[in-house]
Specification:
Helices cover 32% and strands 22% of the residues. It is an alpha/beta fold and 339 residues long.
Length: 339
């Protein structure tokens, strides 16, 4: 329901919420002004922090992009860590995972746990600056998964992630629209990464953000991996098979449609974003395989259910994206080498 409201400026509820959105925008502008003028303090770090975030609420593919960026930076010879608030975790305070330790989603949150499973040092804290301070001594650069609006954490660069299909909705602020900050905020970001949407989506974002460094990437369902054995197979080899598909992500239909495009017969089971799965959630009364995203799998791998599989994702950067990143990496190297 709310998605339909946020996609149109003519929906009655959008107009009903507009006065509240105006007040929200005023508070947001005053808060940002406070940090820009120095009335509110940002916590600086000894190492550069790259924030990967979005202006809209809902899932746009930040975490897969963070994982890809981390690998890219590591290939450049940099030691990379990830910081996050750890949304949905059942712990409090600062929690860190490093040296390939097995991460538990209950302690870190599902998205940080997924990143830690890839071998990255990860720290979560209510105050992201605390997480930054914990990892800074052992890293050359830190990636903040979300946190574009967390101005208490100083940053060296910002990567704005945009959904190439939904774009910025009706371009109104919460609660009349999906924006956390006005659209003009995007002009201050170093890179704008548009997920999917094809040529039309890329052109639309460039039209809305003239002068911004806008590039495209996409996330493709790649492999099917068992959660209880070493079985791994390309997704296309599952074509024709009947499966249950579960997804506790921002846009479950994106996952279900990816499986359908690969030729699978999908019985879809959407769950709320960051849902904490229990074995009963996956009891569908038959022995058909149950496929899920990697983000959901970190919460289900201890179930010991041989029906469960995760579908891993592959990030594909579009033309010019790597070259733009190279320019940012060269700038960051200067910051890393500055005493």
């Amino acid at each position: 329901m709310i998605e339909r409201v946020w996609q149109s400026r003519w929906h009655p509820l959008a107009w009903l919420f507009w006065p509240v959105a105006w007040l929200f925008g005023l508070v947001t502008a005053l808060r940002r002004l406070g940090y820009r003028r120095g009335w509110l303090r940002s916590q600086a770090s000894d190492v550069p922090v790259i924030v990967v975030g979005n202006l809209t609420v809902g899932g746009v593919g930040k975490t897969p992009l963070v994982a890809w960026l981390a690998g890219y930076l590591q290939d450049q010879g940099l030691r990379v860590g990830v910081v996050s608030r750890g949304y949905g975790r059942q712990s409090r305070g600062l929690v860190t995972v490093s040296d390939g330790q097995r991460a538990e989603a209950e302690a870190l949150g599902d998205e940080p746990a997924l990143l830690a499973d890839g071998g990255l040092p990860v720290a979560v804290a209510e105050r992201r600056s605390d997480a930054v301070a914990a990892l800074a001594p052992s890293c050359d650069v830190l990636l903040a998964d979300d946190g574009l609006q967390h101005y208490a954490m100083a940053r060296a660069a910002e990567v704005l992630v945009v959904d190439g299909e939904r774009l910025f909705g009706n371009r109104w602020l919460l609660p009349a629209g999906p924006l956390r900050e006005p659209l003009r905020r995007a002009r201050h970001c170093d890179l704008v990464a548009v997920r999917g949407g094809g040529a039309l989506g890329l052109a639309a974002v460039r039209r809305l953000l003239p002068g911004a460094a806008v590039f495209q990437f996409d996330v493709h369902a790649d492999r099917v991996e068992s959660l209880s054995t070493d079985d791994v197979a390309p997704l296309h080899t599952w074509a024709g098979r009947r499966v249950h598909a579960v997804a506790g992500i921002g846009l479950p239909e994106r996952f279900f449609n990816a499986l359908r495009r690969a030729g699978l017969q999908v019985q879809a089971h959407p769950f709320p974003d960051h849902h904490i799965f229990r074995p009963d959630d996956l009891a569908f009364g038959d022995d058909c395989p149950v496929l899920m995203t990697s983000k959901d799998a970190v919460k289900c791998r201890h179930f010991g259910d041989r029906r469960l599989y995760q579908v891993s994702a592959r990030v594909e950067p579009g033309p010019g994206f790597r070259e733009a990143l190279n320019a940012q990496v060269n700038r960051l190297r200067t910051l890393v080498s500055t005493p």
